[in-house]
Design goal:
This protein has about 400 residues and is α/β, with parallel strands linked by helices. It is about 30% helix and about 25% strand. It has helices spanning about 5-10, 25-40, 55-60, 75-85, 100-105, 115-130, 170-175, 195-215, 245-255, 270-275, 305-310, and strands at about 20-25, 45-50, 70, 90, 110-115, 135-140, 150-155, 180-185, 190, 225, 265-270, 280-290, 295-300, 320, 330-335, 345-355, 360-365, 385-390. The strands form three sheets. Strands 1, 12, 13, 14, 15, 16, 17 and 18 form an eight-stranded mixed β-sheet that branches. An eight-stranded parallel barrel has the order 2-3-4-5-6-8-10-11, surrounded by five helices. The chain has a two-stranded antiparallel sheet with strand order 7-9. Bound molecules: pyridoxal-5'-phosphate. Pyridoxal-5'-phosphate binds near residues 229 and 231.
């Protein structure tokens, strides 16, 4: 694992302008992903959901470790296929264009996650026209049976995602009528930001039971059950992220108890894979007091690092000394903002700092997932941050 403070101190010496950058610790990423995968049960597969961070170097680091990649748009699919033509790919997401479905068939993807009957019919027509088999997973939105939801639920209630189980007979009839659609499995991704292992195991148990029931009711034997991703990062209490290791132990027990050993259990995780390898670093440009409250204005902002604004949280950070001490605050609460002319450009709100001076560096960890790539990068035409893959 990199010594981030020492690395930043070294990098800033090469910067003529106030410093602003993303740093990715690729060694940490590799070792974290490797550990995650070695903890899984034998019949599990692990795909990386590229939407969390599709940077070329991140994908290259993960490629030898994961079983494949998940793409949620034609753009991601093209990018992944171009960079890693040898890797199995999943193509999911709502509102797929006919041209994107065609691309998926041409790329020979491992799975197309179908979201609706219209999409299924469109895929049946296209695959017949092209004379190419289409490996299909039906994405299902099932009731949650009192399982507690997280702050970001994609199912268990009316949403645009997946089939209502009532539509399953019609969907299966479409598959059966086609000579080209091949049902390879069912797909569930009902929630993200999961922090509770026991709740997530209950959710997986619901997936298992539903899968088995459908196999019996409709005399099916699809080889794979995709259980999505959704393992959470605890931005408020970084010592308490989702406990993947305890989860994997519980999963092994559950697989035995529910006799799921003959089904391949496929994961497609994003946030939990890459969040911890990324850091966003900003240099403090200004410190001021306004109506009794302190503000630090730092180089960059939510147009680079939208995660805190998107999640509505105050992002954890550390201060790396580097500035002069003439303008500084000590033992004060301070709000960290960026350079945008909107009061929403807040990265951390009223947080206590021991000492903060002009020219110090603010280092935001947990910035490796849904960070740079979900930010409104062109707003105000500020420069982009530097990016270091270390
Ligand atoms: C269908 C699907 N699969 C996987 C993921 C990855 O989720 P996470 O990054 O929470 O692991 C998402 C995230 O939105 C998703 O929508």
């Amino acid at each position: 694992m990199l010594n981030i403070e020492a690395t930043i101190k070294q990098l800033v010496t090469h910067s003529e302008e106030p410093f602003c950058a993303y740093l990715y610790d690729l060694g940490e990423l590799r070792s974290h992903a490797q550990k995650m995968i070695s903890a899984l049960p034998k019949n599990a597969e692990f795909f990386y959901a590229a939407k969390a961070n599709p940077e070329r170097e991140i994908l290259a680091a993960l490629s030898p470790i994961v079983d494949g990649f998940e793409a949620a748009s034609g753009g991601e699919l093209k990018w992944l296929h171009q960079l890693h033509p040898e890797k199995p790919l999943i193509f999911g997401g709502p509102g797929k264009l006919p041209s994107e479905l065609k691309l998926a068939l041409e790329c020979g993807v491992d799975a197309i996650h179908v979201e609706s009957q219209n999409e299924l019919k469109r895929l049946a027509e296209l695959s017949a026209q092209m004379g190419r088999p289409a490996p299909v997973f039906l994405r299902m939105n099932i009731p949650l049976d009192n399982i507690e939801v997280t702050k970001l639920a994609m199912g268990g209630k009316p949403t645009p995602f997946g089939f209502d189980p009532q539509e399953l007979p019609d969907a299966l009839a479409i598959v059966q009528r086609s000579n080209y659609l091949e049902l390879k499995g069912f797909h569930f991704h009902l929630m993200s930001h999961q922090l509770c292992v026991d709740t997530h195991l209950k959710l997986i148990q619901l997936y298992f039971n539903t899968f088995k029931q459908w196999c019996t009711d409709y005399q099916l034997s699809p080889p794979i059950l995709n259980v999505g991703g959704g393992m959470g990062i605890n931005y408020q209490d970084p010592g308490n992220h989702f406990d993947w290791w305890r989860f994997c132990e519980g999963l092994k027990v559950l697989i035995d108890a529910e006799s799921m050993n003959d089904t391949r259990i496929r994961f497609e995780c994003g946030r939990f894979v890459t969040a911890t390898c990324g850091y966003y670093v900003m240099e403090v440009l200004d410190i001021k007091r306004n109506h009794g409250e302190f503000f630090a204005i730092a180089r960059g902002g939510t147009h680079h690092f939208r995660t805190p604004a998107a999640q509505g949280h105050s992002h954890p950070f550390s201060v790396i000394k580097g500035g002069n001490s003439e303008v500084s605050v000590e033992n004060e609460k301070i709000t960290i903002v960026g350079q945008l002319c909107t009061p929403k450009d807040v990265l951390a709100k009223s947080e206590m700092v021991k000492s903060l001076s002009l020219g110090d560096y603010l280092c935001f960890p947990l910035a490796g997932a849904y960070a740079w790539n979900i930010s409104h990068q062109n707003f105000l035409m500020h420069e982009k941050p530097r990016v270091y893959f270390l």
